[in-house]
């Protein structure tokens, strides 16, 4: 039902964002060590989510 109202791509992007947030929370709570590669992965994931969100907003504005 959720896929019907959004899209499969939106659900995938949200899943990636959720995984990144869960990893950050885990680091904050359990003090897990984070590598530079891990931080870069978090940054790329969050940037992708923001860019996707902006692109989706712009496509809705031009569609209406």
TrEMBL record:
Pfam families, per database record: TPT
SUPFAM superfamilies, per the entry: Multidrug resistance efflux transporter EmrE
Chain ranges of the Sugar phosphate transporter domain: 1-53
InterPro entries: EmrE-like, Sugar_P_trans_dom, TPT_transporter
Membrane topology field: Multi-pass membrane protein
Protein location: Membrane
Keywords noted in UniProt: Membrane, Transmembrane, Transmembrane helix
Keyword RNA-binding: no
Transmembrane segments: 32-52
Chief place where the protein resides: membrane
Any Gene Ontology CC annotation: membrane
Protein name as catalogued: Sugar phosphate transporter domain-containing protein
Native source species: Linum tenue
């Amino acid at each position: 039902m959720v896929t019907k109202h959004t899209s499969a791509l939106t659900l995938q992007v949200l899943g990636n964002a959720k995984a990144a947030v869960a990893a950050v929370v885990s680091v904050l709570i359990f003090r897990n060590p984070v590598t530079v590669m891990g931080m870069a992965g978090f940054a790329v994931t969050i940037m992708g989510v923001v860019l996707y969100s902006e692109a989706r907003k712009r496509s809705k504005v031009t569609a209406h």
